Amino acid sequence: MSSTTTTANAGPPSPPPRAPPARATTAPLGPTAIAIHHASQFSMGALAACGAVTFTNPFEVIKTRMQLQGELEKRMPKASGAPVGPRPYPNAIAALKTIFRNEGLRGIQRGLAPAYIYQVLLNGCRLGMYEPIKAGYVTLFNLASPSGRAHELPAMVFGGATAGLLGAFVSSPLYLLKTRMQSYVATAGTAVGAQHSYVQLGTVRALRRIYTAEGVRGLWRGVDAAMLRTGVGSAVQLSSYDSFKRILANSGWFAMHDGHGGLSLHLGASLITSFFVCISMNPFDVASTRMYNQNTAADGKQGALYKSGFDCLVKTVRAEGIAALYKGFTAHYLRIGPHTVLTFVFLEQLRKLGRFAFSKE
């Protein structure tokens, strides 16, 4: 009786516990889809960089000439009255005026043709390969963190450096030719560094001329300095951009309408990133410019002034002091600041376009 009463007073039986909702799973991408994704990343990275270099190349010309100005000249106290070489480019703005006055629009856009090809090869690899290389490091060293992405920072740094090194190696001949084109001046009064008159032949014929005279070694002369430069710059740029973009996105200062942020977020992250890139990369940039622009030694096997990027850094500091490693810093920032901003702005907009295009399929 008591058991019946208890059962009657218990009311209707409670429903069975609900099973947790099944998590939505995404089917893994096949080899073809992965290849298409990486190819699109390569293409977007290359297009974004080419768009940026169109606007920033004049400051690259200025930076190149300022870094070659006074090359390996011994430091002399101002009171000594010792003669010094010509200084046609005292600062970035004066250099811009001098080049434009003497050489016109063509002068401030010297080296633009190889610069485009260089950007396609360098940034196609650097930006296009960054994500898969970073993912490879995360998997290889088990850096994924279930509570967040803090453990991925080493993968971001090494992924950026590896992608940069790869891009620098592949694109080195174009950077060499671009540097020599940008340093070349027909009039002796404003010439700095070694002058290579064959650059007037154009990109293809000039590359052929270098290959005929110096072989493959000549085309890749200075690649060690370029890889140092780009590896350091890429590690700082790509890892810092990701980090600063996340910090700014979490700050609440920027609207996140589509989960990816707007133009102002990308601009803010790029401006902060460019400062750190310029600080870290300028010494290696000076070494790279000088390694590429030097004449070839009589034996044809190495440069006339420097044997390697490290040798260039040591000789530069010994002759001109530590400050010489930051020659052309203002021009470098005026170049790399807008270039970083424009590259990532163009890249983000291209990615949005890609997401929109694929969402319609």
Automatic annotation (TrEMBL):
Keywords, comma-separated and alphabetical: Membrane, Mitochondrion, Mitochondrion inner membrane, Repeat, Transmembrane, Transmembrane helix, Transport
Location within or outside the cell: Mitochondrion inner membrane
Coiled coil regions in record: none
One Pfam family matching this protein: Mito_carr
Compositionally biased intervals (Low complexity): 1-11
Entry keyword annotation includes Amino-acid biosynthesis: no
Domain of life: Eukaryota
Membrane topology, record value: Multi-pass membrane protein
Region described as Disordered: spans on this chain: 1-27
GO CC entries: mitochondrial inner membrane
Sequence intervals crossing the membrane: 155-177
Solcar repeats: 36-136, 151-247, 261-353
PROSITE patterns reported in the protein's UniProt record: SOLCAR
UniProt cross-references to InterPro entries, sorted A to Z: MCP_dom_sf, MCP_transmembrane, Mito_Carrier_Antiporter
Similarity comment: Belongs to the mitochondrial carrier (TC 2.A.29) family.
Protein known as: Mitochondrial oxaloacetate carrier protein
The species this protein was found in: Geranomyces variabilis
Taxonomic lineage: Eukaryota, Fungi, Fungi incertae sedis, Chytridiomycota, Chytridiomycota incertae sedis
